[in-house]
């Protein structure tokens, strides 16, 4: 019997699930290990049985659930916002990194580094209520397209990972996103695309302030960074927002290293999974030298830690939904 997963947001894409678990995965040791772990932790009477309330699975987003190449989706969004807002900020014409964005100077933008990126995001994501920002994100998603495939960004999700999310939830696991991306950039669409509701999304954030005026109470986003949910920040955020150590953690880069370590450090059974981008033909092949999604330390430690490394080229039958 066939099962169906519906990706619905600003469009609907019906993805057919063939019979059996994880149909877009090749029948490799990787798939077998995933299924074996889930079965042994959810079967009553198993020595490795984990009660439903403790079944927490966390997923990085960029590069783990959807494509992060040739640039982070939120960075593309922020660059587009610079262009939209530029008429209101004439000083940006002579101020970096905004000048680089408006002139299409990729070299200067790259040289601005993380500091420049944070400055761009702070300037383009602030001065509005969360509800207004929510709508801006949705409106952008309607028309924005991936530069290589021409697909809407919600179609740049990984079909095998959609199946993992569905499979885990079917077996009583609660699935959370724990991403370095902005939490309020993700929340408008994660439920429609991944089946993960806003309250199960953890990410980086800007500061907000409460404004009371004429008996009206609102929140306003500020151009100040509140929290960067990356590297060591991920375990801290999981502890603060979820309050349980995960049983399963999926990542794809060194930014997920501490989350993987914390998940597997002292809890058995536990499962750490790394998505290794090895498929240059169907997606992009990158790891140790990449300036986006660099995978070096985590890959080195994967064997010692017993983490599962998913080889995208050999373990996945398909990459994106058809």
TrEMBL record:
Task: Extract the GO molecular function terms from the UniProt entry.
Answer: hydrolase activity
What keywords appear on the UniProt entry? Answer: Hydrolase, Signal
Q: Extract the InterPro entries matched here.
A: HAD-like_SerB, HAD-like_sf, HAD_sf
Give the signal sequence positions: 1-18
Record's PANTHER family? PHOSPHOSERINE PHOSPHATASE
Name of the protein described by the UniProt record: Haloacid dehalogenase-like hydrolase
Could you tell me which species this protein originates from? Zwartia hollandica
């Amino acid at each position: 019997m066939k099962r169906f997963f519906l990706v619905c947001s600003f469009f609907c894409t019906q993805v057919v699930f063939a019979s059996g678990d994880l149909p877009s995965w090749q029948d490799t040791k990787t798939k077998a290990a995933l299924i074996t772990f889930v079965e042994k932790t959810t079967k009553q009477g198993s020595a490795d049985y984990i009660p439903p309330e403790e079944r927490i699975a966390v997923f990085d987003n960029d590069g783990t659930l959807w494509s992060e190449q040739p640039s982070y989706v939120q960075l593309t969004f922020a660059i587009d916002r610079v262009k939209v807002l530029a008429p209101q900020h004439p000083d940006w014409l002579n101020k970096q990194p905004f000048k680089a964005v408006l002139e299409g100077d990729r070299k200067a933008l790259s040289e601005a580094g993380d500091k420049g990126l944070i400055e761009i995001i702070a300037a383009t994501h602030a001065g509005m209520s969360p509800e207004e920002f929510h709508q801006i994100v949705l409106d952008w998603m309607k028309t924005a397209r991936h530069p290589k495939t021409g697909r809407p960004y919600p179609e740049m999700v990984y079909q095998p990972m959609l199946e993992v999310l569905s499979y885990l939830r079917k077996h009583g696991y609660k699935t959370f996103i724990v991403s370095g991306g902005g939490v309020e950039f993700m929340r408008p669409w994660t439920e429609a695309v991944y089946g993960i509701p806003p309250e199960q999304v953890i990410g980086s954030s800007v500061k907000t302030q409460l404004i009371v005026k004429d008996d009206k109470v609102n929140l306003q986003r500020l151009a100040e960074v509140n929290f960067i949910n990356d590297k060591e920040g991920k375990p801290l955020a999981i502890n603060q927002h979820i309050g349980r150590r995960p049983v399963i953690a999926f990542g794809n880069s060194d930014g997920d290293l501490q989350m993987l370590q914390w998940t597997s450090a002292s809890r058995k059974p536990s499962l750490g999974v790394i998505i290794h981008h090895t498929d240059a033909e169907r997606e992009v092949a990158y790891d140790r030298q990449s300036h986006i999604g660099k995978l070096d330390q985590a890959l080195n430690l994967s064997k010692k830690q017993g983490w599962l490394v998913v080889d995208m080229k050999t373990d996945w039958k398909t990459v994106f939904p058809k």
